[in-house]
Amino acid sequence: MYARQPKKMLAINILNILQKYTDAEHVLSQKEIKELLETEFDMTVERKAVKRNLMELFDSGYNISCTEKVRKKSSGESEIIYTDWYYVHDFEESELRLLIDSVQFSKHISNKQSKELIEKLEKLSSKYFQNKIKHIKNLSLHTSGNQQLFYVIEILSEAMEKNRKVKCNFISYDIDKKKYAKADKGKIKEYILNPYQMVIASGQYYLMCSMDKYKNIINYRLDHIHNIELLDEKRLPLKQNKGTENGLDLPKYMAEHIYMFSGDNIRVKFRAKRYLVDHLIDGFGIDITFGNATDDEVDVVVTANKEAMYKWCIQYMEHIEVLSPKSFRKEIKVALEKGVKKYE
To answer: What is the C-alpha separation between 227 and 340, in angstroms, rounded?
Structure first.
């Protein structure tokens, strides 16, 4: 139970009660609000005071609603009764559930950070919603993660807003399942980056950036960035990087970099099974080209990052056949032959 509250807190406490105990399907009468004020905040008030503060909150534009009913008085006159009060939450339950699921199944947030975020999201609705999602709390798909992740996002956001560079280290797992900073001859390597965009691909958070030395867009996972520092030096303008002279077409870029590999693009033609069409459009976008279709197969032409396309073709080798370029077809063939030899 809370310590005894001063009367000036009445309106705030009523608002807290509505936020916690009500939604469109769960309403409270003025009497019930009065009782909750006593049990939750040790406040004893008259029902008229409850009504007055409810009306003041309503007239002030707070997200609360109620039902208006007309009641006949003993004198025969009519009066309006306001009842069934509830808080209109900013998020629908389905919207909150979608956000919570996104956090729960994110690969780049640690268990601790995931739990804290979900608890904050739960509070954006009533206690009834919190009861509905208790069963997902024990589901853990996360690694230890990078505890600096949110700080990294904050610094990168500031750097992009102010057109400045950042300095950082990169960490990765070793066979002991612990993360270490990348080093060269025992010395931890420092990287100076020009940050341009943060994106999510395949459940991972990436930074699209460049280095002055190479001047081409590269992608780094945010959970691998460590000890980030905002620099005073201005970042390299995006248009001075290879491939972004005319700006960044983000949807096109994401479609061409399905695994977020950096490097040159390649135009590939392959024969695929028809049942892959949905997956192909999801992965490569609507700029994909189809031709020579039969009931079972179809020719497909895509433009994508070469390394990503190589990995994709190996992954789907049972369902596709690379037709061109001939040099790329040969690379795939060599890779498959090496793989077969390992199982002979």
So the answer is: 43
One domain, residues 197 and 274: no
Q: Are residues 213 and 156 both part of a single domain? A: yes
Q: Phi and psi dihedrals of 263, rounded to 5? A: 120, -170
pTM, 2 dp: 0.64
Within a domain: 334: yes
- On whether both 115 and 46 belong to a single domain, the answer is no
Looking at the structure, do residues 242 and 154 belong to the same domain, yes or no? Answer: yes
Quote the domain boundaries for residue 279: 265-341
* pLDDT tens digits along 233-276: 999 999 999 888 888 888 778 777 776 777 788 999 999 999 99
Residue 286 belongs to a domain:
yes
